Amino acid sequence: MALLSSPANQSRVLQVRSFHELVTTPMIDGVNALCWERKLPGNFQELVSLLEVVEGIMPLDEEHLRNLPASALGRVAANIMLDDLERLQALGLAPELNCIHGYPRDEAEGPVATDVFSFHVDSAPVRTDTWLCTYHGAASEGLAHHEAQRKVDIPATRQALLALYGGEDDPDFSAFLQDHCYDLHYEPRPGAQPFNFGQGNLWRIATEWPGNPVPPCIHRAPFTTAADPPRLLLIS
């Protein structure tokens, strides 16, 4: 295992050498992301072309992937995705495979957008982690905590949220921020350098849950346009 220390914003990412290490390595001493770096064989582009996704998010079930009329290399790619799906299912997780050609945007008026394009952390009421892998298309991005600031802690943004709330900065206001997930979103500090999760790498990243000894991993979906290739994504 190796702690990725260059660039500085990856200092909380630990690189592991196998799926076993990805599962069993504890997140302690500030490490809030584990990465199993992989160079995957197979033709994932072929799978995307066979899926013919036009827009939005297309869930992929096992039967659909197994029945695609893929070449030998396309079948290799499909089997890799199915193997990863089964690995996570064996852990008692509920992973999803998706072909994504655009996410919905947060169109609500307000000072904090809460869609997946905003740097954010995942949260849960119980101990859990987020798992993800991008097989094709643009990969997710991460951001170190020292290069980020919670949007609700930015004075101008907090005042705008208070005006939207229509009350005082009290415990009820904190509950309002939590109810709308405003408190989970972050703004990069000047000069911040987000890091890329990369294609083929399987990640396990920390979420925000009561008693978590490490800070949750700040991340976001990549900005894409209609001209960009769809993403093949595993997430749990």
Description:
The protein has 236 residues and is of the alpha+beta class. It has one domain. The chain has six helices and 13 strands. α1 (19-24) links the parallel β2 (13-16) and β3 (33-36). α2 crosses α4 (72-90). It starts with a strand and ends with a strand. The model is unreliable at 2-10 (pLDDT under 50).
Helicity, in percent?
A: 10-25%
Distance N to C terminus: 23 Å
Number of domains: 1
Strand content: 15-25%
Low-confidence stretches: 2-10
Give the total of beta strands.
13
Strand order of the largest sheet: 1-2-3-11-6-13-5-4
The helix tally amounts to 6
What does the oligomeric state look like here?
single chain
| Main structural class | alpha+beta
What's the mean pLDDT score? 91
Q: Largest sheet, if any?
A: 8 strands, mixed
Name the helix and strand elements from N-terminus to C-terminus, one letter apiece.
Answer: EEHEHEHHEEEEHHEEEEE
Shape: globular
The radius of gyration is 19 Å
Notable characteristics:
3-stranded antiparallel beta sheet, 8-stranded mixed beta sheet, 23% strand, disordered N terminus, 6 helices, alpha+beta, 236 residues
Brief summary of the model shown:
This protein has 236 residues and is an alpha+beta fold. 25% of the residues lie in helices and 23% in strands. The two termini are 23 Å apart.
